[in-house]
Amino acid sequence: MQTERFVDIIHKKREGGELSDDEIKGMITDYVSGNIPDYQMSAMLMAIFFQGMSDREMTTLTLVMRDSGECVDLSVIDGVKVDKHSTGGVGDKTTLIVGPIVAACGIPVAKMSGRGLGFTGGTYDKLESIPGYRVELTDEEFFAAVKECGISLVGQSGEMAPADKLIYALRDVTATVESIPLIASSIMSKKLAAGADKIVLDVTVGNGAFMKDIETATELAKRMVAIGNGAGRETVAMITDMNEPLGYAIGNNIEVIEAVDVLKGRGPEDLKEVCFALAGMMISLGSGEGSSSEELKNKLSYDEGVALAKEKISSGEAYEKFLQLVKNQGGDTTYIEDTDKFEKAKHSLELKAESAGYLSFIDTEGFGMGAGMLGAGRAKKEDSIDYSAGMIMRKKIGDKVEVGDVIATMYAADESKLALAKEFLSDKYRITTEKPEKIKLIYDVIRQS
Ligand code: URA
């Protein structure tokens, strides 16, 4: 317990002062142990929201939050372990595709993913929609799975970064989520605790992401890259677009089906482009010195990584790796071999265009919320998910639309949910007579400067 009164530390931050490492350590330790009440921590979070944090303060906060719980030791697994993290989006099923591609190159993938919350989906829920797939493994089972299969995709350990869990819950109810130092330290504390040697961050930007504009996304990316590299883990961020859902499917088992499509060499172009970029970067980081793969003993450039990622899809090796992963974690692979076997929603309804022109705007967050209303997501942590619910977009931004064309097909277990979602989504897209400019998918790559 620190000797300085916490009210004085709040005052210091409120006035724009820089907190010392001891003050930050004391704050987190005392909050986790219950010696700082929520009302004082809330005031501190609001002071940080308005005053920001220096790089040193933010790095200290990240490391103290990382050390508040279990840190996974991946040194028992040979080779360079590369992790990937997305700051969240709608229709983002990239982990299901990128993981097997990278593992098929011989780079071990030991990845923990979270559940979806609010308008964003979570890889945990998508994996759980595969019948039999065990998302929860013990540490020993997790390590054994990576050694045996080269890849394991599991849920995030409840013991990791408990300080972040407490603070995130408080931020959620005190309007202090959208703060760059708080987001950066929250994400990086968990990534560093997850133990990978190198990290690729997918920082999404747009109306379906936390960061709504390129400037803020770039600032967040730079700060996370600085934290990762400062902690001795090579970290690269890619800034990717989230101004429309990625691919066509938004939901859980329908997203798995779309991911399998890509693994089989088909699938939507935008999803493929983002996956090849992320996988290419992971392959480049995982190649060279220390790599456990013969194919990757020489360092590959990003472009060479992208080319290899494409090869792993066209050769079928990434698809085979996904089958192995599902089998290894207890999942029924017949669902992957024949995706028609996945449970289908009882009811569906089409959202149809009422005017002609070009689809020029999608409120992506709105469509994510719409999928949640259909049963694909949760409003509260305790809510259960309907794995077959969600929607399939039938148009992309820039597509020509005639009156009556289907914009999206919605799926749900009961018709009242479909009617509510249809009403909710009716003003969440725009059709104009002018064709909009094509959306760029990868805006920038941020490395250590
Ligand atoms: N994801 C996190 O884990 N933390 C944040 O603060 C925002 C997104």
Largest sheet entry: 4 strands, mixed
Residues in β-strands, percent: 15-25%
Any ligands, ions or cofactors bound here, and which? uracil
Rounded to an integer in angstroms, the radius of gyration calculated over CA atoms is 22 Å
Helix segment tally: 17
Lay out the secondary structure.
Blueprint: H1 6-14, H2 21-32, H3 38-51, H4 55-66, E1 82-86, H5 94-104, E2 109-113, H6 123-128, H7 139-149, E3 151-155, H8 162-172, H9 180-193, E4 198-205, H10 214-230, E5 234-241, E6 249-251, H11 253-263, H12 269-286, H13 302-314, H14 317-328, H15 334-337, E7 347-352, E8 357-362, H16 364-376, E9 390-393, E10 400-401, E11 406-412, H17 415-425, E12 429-432, E13 442-446
Parallel strand pairs: 1-4, 2-3, 4-5
Antiparallel strand pairs: 5-13, 6-9, 7-11, 8-10, 8-12, 9-11
The chain binds uracil.
Uracil binds near residues 87, 182, 186 and 187.
